[in-house]
Every structure is written in C-alpha cells, then in structure tokens.
Design brief:
- The chain has 182 residues and is mainly α.
- It is 48% helix and 11% strand.
- The protein has a three-stranded mixed sheet with strand order 1-2-3, covered by helices on one side.
- The longest helix has 26 residues, at 19-44.
- The radius of gyration is 25 Å and the shape is elongated.
- The two termini are 34 Å apart.
Length: 182
C-alpha cells in the first residue's frame, strides 16, 4: 500500500489557508502518490514472493519461462521460485529440502531405490495444482539415469472413513477420489 501524500502537511500551519498552496497541493498529491506506488512496486518486485504481474513477466523473460494465459499470479510465482531452487548435483537430502520448501512438509511422500534407480514423489491433493511445475523441476534436478515417477496421492479409505455412507452418497466416485476432503 503506497503512502498517502499531503504536501500541505509539510508546510507551516499558517500557510495552510493560502488558496494557491492548496491548489498546488491538490494537483501534486496524486503525482507523488503515484511515485510512491512505483517505488513500492519496484521494491516488491525484488522478491519472488511479492512479485506483481509486471515483475513476474520480467523474471519469466529472464528465466525463459512461458506462462499460460489462465495461470494465476501465485502459480507464476511458484514456477519462478521452483526454477531458482533448482540445484545440481542431486542428493536425497537436498531433494527432500527442496520439496519441503516448495510443497511444505508432509504434503508429499518421497521414496527412492538407489539399486533399482528410481525416485517416486506422491503429492497430496492439496498441492496437486503445482503438479506440472514440480514434475518439470524434478526432471531437471534428478539424474538422467534414474526413473522418475511423480504421482498424486488421491483420497484413501482412511481419509474417507470418518464420514458416513449417507454423507458420502452426495458425491460421485471421482469427487471422492480427487477432491480435498475437509
């Protein structure tokens, strides 16, 4: 939120009644408020989590990312943040730390088999909207000689067991499987 500017408040109170200064203040205040808005925008665009649309476009251009037309600003920030978080060489603790910072602890299940050369990430439904972004990130970060499986962990019986059959009857099977249940 930009500052509210009032030029008259900087002048001695005896000058507040002069009509010319009041008019100058009326004309200049909006311009100075716009300057403060631009300064705030510039400061916010220095950090990924506070980017506005213009700042996100700038980062996407620098990183060679293409944003979809229907993507929200939050999704675009997430994509930019995930690109900055990429780190080679791959190690299991680094991958776990990366997923924790992007998705949140407990929002995924990470398993691997070094002998069979595979990595599996099962994401919670709550973070399923970032599925494609996480998949691209993992493809870039994990070694090319390892199979990568990125899946969504759908609702399971244990999640739905607290509801009665009458409550669940209001939903279709697909809704029960793929929607976040509260």
């Amino acid at each position: 939120m930009a500052r509210e500017v009032d030029i008259l408040s900087y002048l001695p109170s005896i000058l507040h009644d002069i009509k010319e200064l009041q008019k100058v203040s009326e004309l200049e205040n909006p311009s100075l408020e716009r300057v403060w808005e631009l300064v705030e925008s510039i400061l916010n665009n220095q950090f990924i989590l506070t980017l506005d649309d213009r700042g996100a476009s700038r980062y996407e251009k620098m990183l060679g990312l293409v944003a979809g037309e229907s993507e929200t600003l939050e999704t675009r920030r997430f994509r930019i943040l995930s690109r900055y978080q990429e780190q080679a060489p791959y190690s299991y603790p680094v991958l776990k730390q990366l997923l924790d910072s992007l998705l949140g602890e407990g929002k995924y299940e990470l398993t691997r088999s070094a002998s069979e050369k595979w990595v599996r990430v099962k994401m919670e439904l709550a973070v399923a909207r970032e599925f494609e972004i996480v998949e691209v990130l993992l493809e870039r970060v994990t070694p090319q000689n390892m199979q990568l499986y990125v899946e969504i962990r759908y609702n399971q019986h244990i999640t739905l067991a607290r509801f009665t059959h009458a409550q669940l009857a209001a939903y279709m099977h697909k809704q029960l499987r793929e929607e976040v249940m509260f």
